[in-house]
Amino acid sequence: MAAPHNKHIYSGIHALRGGKPELGDLALNDFHLVFRFPPESAIAADPELKKRVKQAWFAFHVIAQCTLKATPPSSGIPSSIRIRFRDFTYVSFNFADDKQARDAYDFIRSRTCRLGSVDKLLAFSYSPPHASPEYKISGWDVYDARAEFRRQGISEKAADLGWRITSINADYSFSPTYPAVLAVPSKISDNTLKYAANFRSRARVPTLSYLHPVNNCTITRSSQPFVGLRMKRSIQDERLVGACFSAASDLTDTPPSAIADQSPSSSHVDLSAESADADMSLSETERREDELITGNAFYDEKTGKRLIYGAQQNNLIVDARPAINSYAMQAIGMGSENMDYYRFARKVFLNIDNIHVMRESLEKVVTAIKDADVSPFPPNKELLAKSKWLKHITGILDGSAIIARQVSIQHSHVLIHCSDGWDRTSQLSALAQLMLDPYYRTLEGFIVLVEKDWLSFGHMFQLRSGHLSHESWFTADNDALAGSTVKPGDNDGRGDAIENALASAKRFWIKNVSNDKDNSSEADDASAVDEAKQETVPVAEGQATRLKDVSPVFHQFLDATYQLLRQHPTRFEFNERFLRRLLYHVYSCQYGTFLYNNERQRREAKLQERTRSVWAYFLSRCPEFTNGQYDATIDDHTKGRERLIFPRLGEVRWWHQVFNRTDDEMNGDLNASAATAERVAAYASQTSSTLSESPHFGGDDMSSPPERDWTSPTRSPQPPTLKASQSVLAGVELAHEALTPETRSPPSLNRSASAGEVPGALAVLQDKISGLGITKGVFGGASSASNGRNRHRRLDPRGKRRLLHSS
């Protein structure tokens, strides 16, 4: 791309970043803000300064918030423009001339949230220099869906592994948000798929994402079913899910245990009773999660003897939503599978919150670090904790690890869905595969993973990222008088009680006179900027940014990937900077890769012919993004070289680099607490060892309590219930008859007196929701059984099985 033509140049501008001022010149072109320092005036006076000239480029579409603080010329106080970028860069520009500040603000605004259509973004104008390595690489050719399925062992020429490639969606008429190339069970016809599509939101039927190379267990994904209040069913959907869970065993005509026995030792970690103390064994929380999922699968019901870990299949349907959210969706005709019709599997709910909760969480993080332009001080630790960002990242990692363990260790199949199957589903599916397959931990493999599970399966990058920006992200304050100018070390007057009271009154007034909440901020701007410059620009249908749709879903995936990279630094070919630059280019709009919302829209826009792919940028700069510690050797018998990796949930930390902060600023308190806990544990272990060796606290002459008989046929050992802070697992659900085949429970005792008048379908939903003990632990607080069709399993400390509606 030729050097951009600067439309506006402002000289003698003071920029503030991290509380440090810098004098330079500000240039604005169609797509970038460029700050050049020292200024030309200083270079003219001292030519030696020309050797020290630097430029900082800021893409307009990475702007997350832009605020104009205009002051009257007579005040003698400079006007300022404060900008927060999506990559968490904060910078302020002070203008001596009030008119220049207004002009710059208006131009930036016009080139950001008033373009009107996606094809006016930078990607449609950008091209790397013809002589550059990037120009010679076609990033669009890196991913080929058929080639990736061939790598997994699925193709027309390869041996039948129980899966086939269907062309039912070749023209995207079957499911517009699904990829053109789909892998489905070999024994399921396209006609069956068409009927099953009527039972899934947006026709996003269960389809293959990953096939394990050794045990042929799978990760499939879909959207939520149309169950509704009447608990509807679909025979075709049940057949499809059943086929997904039996494809491998149908081929061999052998039981799941035999498939598990055939798996070579290099494909999974041996977690039998004999090797429970191995370095790669499960943590207590992970083991309890698996036991809650599998019920009593680790102990024979009759003999009480421990069974081989993973020898029995426990196929899972994973609903990523909190159970109450799923039940609430039944009121509008959707919901979650009725497990009476999916007896070949169990269903688990995960407490992963929706896009609105995640957006609010990140906004609180931003509040904690929002003075990064004018202040060198660390972020507000209290606000960081209140954001619960790390809790959300931990939950996503925990849920993904559950899926990875089911596939690799339990030798079972997993179907994942949330609501539409393109947000939380993409997070869980991609992260689980990252834990399972070393290929996806290479630079090329990670690109393929993003293309497959995010781009082709329809994560809505345009809506979630807000590529066309929004008017509310631009605000103007026409009353910035003395005392509110931005100076190093100032807090911009936010602590002034009177100013806050006036601002609250103003917001209250606007809220009550405006019918459009999203445009309330535009009412603020009306008094500050010339009305003639605020003419709205028509936006192409379906392309406008809707604030309620913006959410950091992909950011969370990259954050969770960073956690794995940080905890397993030798298992990834790419480095942290690769993840950080990838997040930047999701918002920069410099490349066509992340434009639009699905594969169909990208093909219709002919992005491969009109734009460049971001993968060419990364592949042409491999040395910059390669991890120097990477060890490609796979050996499950050598610590640190295992095929599988799992997160250590207690070691989740802030991704401080992405927030442009130091590790000590973001994680100092967490690291100190962890170090203290390690010292306490070491001391306790040493003390325990000393006491056990003392003749007063041990030895043959002491009468020790009798050892518990774990082989007793009348009572099997069971773990205590997991606490909410320990696990993302929210509940386990399976067919009622599978637990109590002989009888039906009597009507629920906790139903109100008028419940008998509620229609049967509505009563089912009421019964489920009324039984939810939302504030009493991760599995709910109710201990009595209710009467609905589907029950949740809970194991109490005494080893007794409980049936609950609650999650």
Automatic annotation (TrEMBL):
Ranges of compositional bias, category Basic residues: 789-807
- Give residue ranges for domain Myotubularin phosphatase: 139-659
Q: Which InterPro entries match?
A: Myotubularin, Myotubularin-like_Pase_dom, PH-like_dom_sf, Prot-tyrosine_phosphatase-like, Tyr_Pase_AS
Stretch list, region Disordered: 255-286, 516-537, 684-726, 775-807
**Active site (UniProt):** 418 (phosphocysteine intermediate)
Which PROSITE patterns does the protein's record reference?
PPASE_MYOTUBULARIN, TYR_PHOSPHATASE_1
Q: Name one Pfam family in it.
A: Myotub-related
- Composition bias (Polar residues) maps to 255-269, 684-693
Q: Which domain of life is it from?
A: Eukaryota
Question: Per the similarity annotation, which family is this?
Answer: Belongs to the protein-tyrosine phosphatase family. Non-receptor class myotubularin subfamily.
Return the protein name.
Answer: Protein-tyrosine phosphatase-like protein
Upper lineage: Eukaryota, Fungi, Dikarya, Ascomycota, Pezizomycotina
